Amino acid sequence: MDTKLEDGAEYSFALEYHGPPITRNLPRAVPINVDRIPVAAVVSPVTLPDKLSLPIVHPLSATEIGKKFSKECKLGSSSELLTVSPTSVISFEPGKNGVGEGSFSKELGLGSETSVSPSSVNNAFEEREPSNGPSSNSNCVMSGELSSDLESSNRDYGANGGNDLGFSSVNHDNSLEMIGGVGSSGALGFSDSFEKSMELSGSLQKRVSSDCKERLDFNESSQPDWDSSESVMSMDYPSSRVSSCKFGDGKNESSRDVRRASLVRFCDIESDDEDTDKEFSRAEPEVVIAKREPAVKVRKGACYRCLKGSRFTEKEVCIVCDAKYCSSCVLRAMGSMPEGRKCITCLGFPIDESKRGNLGKCSRLLKRLLNDLEIQQIMKAEKLCEVNQLPPEYICVNGRSLYHEELIMLQSCPNPPKKLKPGNYWYDKVSGLWGKEGNKPSQIISPHLNVGGPIKADASNGNTQVYINGREITKVELRMLKLAGVQCAGNPHFWVNEDGSYQEEGQKNTKGYIWGKAGTKLLCAVLSLPAPSKSSSPCGEQVNSVISRSFPDYFEHRAIQKLLLIGYSGSGTSTIFKQAKILYKDIAFSEDERDHIKLLIQTNVYSYIGILLEGREHFEEECLNILRKTSSSDDTELTGCDEGNVEKTPYSICPRLKSFSDWLLKIMASGALEVIFPAATREYAPLVEELCSNSAFRATYNRRSELKTLPSIASYFLERAVDILKPDYKPSDLDILYAEGVTSSNGLSCVDFSFPEPAHDDDVDSEDPHDSLLRFQLIRLQTKGFAENCKWLEMFEDVRLVIFCVSLSDYNQYVNDSDGSSVNKMVLSKKLFESVVTHPTFDQIDFLLLLNKFDLFEEMIEQVPLSQCDWFDDFHPVISRNRSNNSNRNNINNNPSLGQLAFHYTAVKFKKLYSELTGRKLYVSLVKGLEPNSVDAALKYSREILNWDEEKNNFNSSEYSVYSMDANSFSN
Amino acid sequence: MSVAELKERHMAATETVNVLRDKLKQKRLLLLDTDVAGYARSQGKTPVTFGPTDLVCCRTLQGHTGKVYSLDWTPERNRIVSASQDGRLIVWNALTSQKTHAIKLPCAWVMTCAFSPSGQSVACGGLDSVCSIFNLNSQTDRDGNLPVTRMLSGHKGYVSSCQYVPDEDSHLVTSSGDQTCVLWDITTGLRTSVFGGEFQSGHTADVLSISINGSNSRMFVSGSCDSTARLWDMRVASRAVRTFHGHEGDVNSVKFFPDGNRFGTGSADGTCRLFDIRTGHQLQVYYQPHGDNDVPPVISIAFSISGRLLFAGYTNGDCYVWDTLLAKMVLNLGSLHNSHDARISCLGLSADGSALCTGSWDTNLKIWAFGGHRRVI
């Protein structure tokens, strides 16, 4: 106790208080005035002098307080002595003492005889115990503890005495912790008084303190203490609420005294705490640091939240505002630390650059409070979260501050600069030499990074007149060069590559390798010059390929542009998706995927065969019926020789194949095709081979257009059925493209890609570094789930563009809906389009309409008029005129084909529909899903749309039309 | 010809079913002479009252960067797993409000998550139609990501909800957009039984939510877009034990009442209802009329441990606390001081009932608990 008293006397404000009672106004007042001039200035001078003169005397002697202040019971005497810093409490009570005891104690409401005696506090606890549903457990324990304490202890001691008892029972073994504990109770007193809620002070203390001790051994205690520990934010709430109602019944003359006293004492502390936080975080870091420092000095190492503790108390520091918190406050001041060790109020603000070195380095204090996993997460968040990253404008390379993308490139290169701090650097792009401006090179990083400006001759402030890659080198470097055996006579200008090979400027032949000799590296180490590490193999070519590099999470998250690809089933979204995979991925499909797809294709082929066989039966029956009809005259004869003379039709097959066919159909009907077939392929392949050469089968195949269930794509596979069903079949990309069901097994599939850079990539790069880092994610959704009020479409609110796919050939296709009536697929597509476009999630998102299967459409339109679909019934006039012309000169270039006319008509239809629904412009593009170039163009068009979206603000409306025209023509 | 005939017969049968259903409804109405609230009122019960400090936010779990869609508590040790649109599962220590695991998911569109009874693993499911299991004790890979321990694939639609069978780490029930619920054996990764689908008396639309009976873990209830809730026995996959009609919109959330004889539903028609599983009766409707015609759908519900309180989150950002006995809205969490800034999308009571956790579209989770000081004298 004694030593602590000394500590307190040394470091805390208490010294200031009891030393010069009257002058004490001055030191305290200065910080106040900065932040809160009106309140502090007006109130304090009046009340302080007389009132405070008393209190300051009192706290000095513990026994005296015990007697005198027993009524107030604000703080146990022991705690007052233990921690001198809670001046707030001490000064407070004297104030009351001086003015009017009765009214004050009423105001305080805790432990005073007049209004709420300890027993009433007790009551309050008990009362809440039965009434609360959720949190009875811990309450029970606490109130029990409390009441017993209260009973056993002197009634005059009141709540706080009990509190201290409770405390010491937990923490008696460690005096250091004791300080923390007491400190926390002091904090409560402080915050209470600040909020003028005397009512709760005792009980709050109780809660907080119990919280403190539980926090210390959190991991062992499974007892929840929700009630006891509100977060910082919520803390204010109940207390302030209660205080307000308290004021209602207890506003006596004395209340203003209390308020004044508290204002003087606590407002300044609290306010300058908060206000500086705010100011600080908004100001420039450098300025802030300067601002922050004095505040720290004033408080001399006390916890910023509870104001307890001394310089020796272990504390955690906010990496933004430098606020320090003791172990009992840190978790509440910093919350769940989503950005590492920051006060909750500092979230989202950049960190103090001087603390960058400490990022991710955990303190002992946290290690004691939290378990390993928690610490790991905090440190990870601290290091990797976006706000904590080095601001790119602080890094200046070759006289130019970096852009965000450049910094990312710099940090994610194979050989990044170590311990990058804000400052000016020079970077030799050819050799990879890197150093602080005006200094010798400090490191060799990856060469050829496109960061910063061109290197300056005086970058390293050399005066040797020997140049390396246009930089005048320093004396140390020159010495190294000389020792390495490089001829430096005549002030040569060297050209040094990243592998150390050097040549003189203007000459072609390599003169040698600087780091070629074994001794050179040792020499470099002696001269503290950098030498290339072994791992830095010449990899200059790869640096620019974006895909191979990994970026930090947050950056990836930001840079990815999400494209949502949807369309009615059969509109070809899966083909486009697969096409994108094949186009932009190095390995479009992994071996596993290919194996899976192979089985899928084989199963599909079996099912196609099954459909054909079914058709065959149908045709056979048909033929037989005809036969029967024709031969109805000799009916008797037919039935007579039924056994031996089976009717022959073009569709009859031999019994062996027949049995296979029956079996296949049976399996198909039972829906077990996927289960049985891939495994049985080897066994049945010969049969299929036989089947394929069978004339009946071929006859059926020739009538395949009559089989509605057979997809048009089937012929692609059936032509090669024998090859495909061989066990060693490897699906080609084209096969995969054609295959059904590759992506539809899941409701959602997505692929990340970036557009490969064009051949003249250097020019583009230098013009727009952002572009090379653009990455896209194509998300394909199955439309089955698009019910009326789709629950999960809102998950896609962050997509940049919705690509809606419509198959042009749908106008001539029908599906049976649930009622059994057949509906035109184009109409269904339109319905889906309407529901998606009007979905609230997409009300700010651009739409790109892809009109797919144009190749099929062109063929079809010649046979079936577009007006087949009700929606397109007013296409008649255009058709009638063009059709007569077109049939004659179909191939004449300057006249658009019927298909193109119909496409434009359809596009306009959709555009009109879209603008009716949203009032915006619909982007439309024509696609042939099976042609890679066409899909590539469409996806590049979508990139154009996104670019345009970003640049929209820079253009005026007249340019708008020009731009969009360009884009349209580009898409064609 | 035969098709038309069949169609006709189908129509007739449907008609019959509808008539019978109406009859049943009438009969039920006849049999129900009162509802819970009416009876409670006649018994002189008064609704629970909430003081300003009775339910306070005592923790804010910050760390997600996207909307939080789902959360679940462990039975013990007070940990929470939450799933967010940022493609991460985060396991929280609710007491310290710190993260213990942040799991990056292969598919970012996650809709549901669940803690295993032992607290050793978490499950999640979403638009990828797969339910993924992560063992929290497994080694992280090079990038610090937890690898998927097992993928439960077989659903043909998104996985809308998943819950472990109480006290069994190896069994899990999922519900899906393919109109089925599935009981999984996690150790083998195979489906043990499929509820609904081809079978009769299954749901006829996406299943959105499930809840397993706490007192009889063989029974579970599912809520679906076909505006019904169905009760299933895990041992009898072929048909639902009972179908509960009543809602006029999608049943977004179902939750068993703590005693296991009732369950609550939250629906897109803006009501919560209480059903009795033994009689099949609808016991009570919880509906707060709004001034305008806007009826905010209920997204998520949770019962307090005693069942007296029903917490219900609505799309307009409200989160009502209902007195289940008197059908009176006693508190709106959404309007409280320092509540969420956006829609509360998921709710969960801790196993001991001492705290409520809410997850919101504002990317935060908050833990609410009794604040103490019921009445100040």
UniProtKB/TrEMBL annotation, chain A:
Residue stretches of biased makeup (Polar residues): 112-123, 132-151
MF terms (GO), sorted A to Z: GTP binding
Any Pfam family hit: G-alpha
Annotated region described as Disordered, given as residue ranges: 103-157
Binding site for GTP: 852-855
Coiled-coil segments on the chain, per record: none
Cited InterPro entries: Gprotein_alpha_su, GproteinA_insert, P-loop_NTPase, XLG_GTP-binding
One of the GO BP terms on file: signal transduction
Alphabetized PROSITE patterns for the sequence: G_ALPHA (PS51882)
Xref: CDD domains: G-alpha
Span of the signal peptide: none
Membrane keyword on record: no
Keywords in alphabetical order: GTP-binding, Magnesium, Metal-binding, Nucleotide-binding, Transducer
Binding annotation for Mg(2+): 574, 745
GTP-binding in keyword set: yes
Protein's recorded name: Extra-large guanine nucleotide-binding protein 1
Species whose genome carries this gene: Abeliophyllum distichum
From TrEMBL, chain B:
A single GO cellular-component term on record: plasma membrane
Keyword Repeat: yes
Top-level division of the source organism's lineage: Eukaryota
GO BP field: signal transduction
Keywords: Repeat, Transducer, WD repeat
WD repeats: 61-102, 152-194, 200-242, 244-285, 337-368
Keyword Repeat tagged: yes
Family: Belongs to the WD repeat G protein beta family.
Cited function: Guanine nucleotide-binding proteins (G proteins) are involved as a modulator or transducer in various transmembrane signaling systems. The beta and gamma chains are required for the GTPase activity, for replacement of GDP by GTP, and for G protein-effector interaction.
Listed PANTHER family: GUANINE NUCLEOTIDE-BINDING PROTEIN BETA G PROTEIN BETA
UniProt subunit comment: G proteins are composed of 3 units, alpha, beta and gamma.
Protein name as catalogued: Guanine nucleotide-binding protein subunit beta
Organism: Abeliophyllum distichum
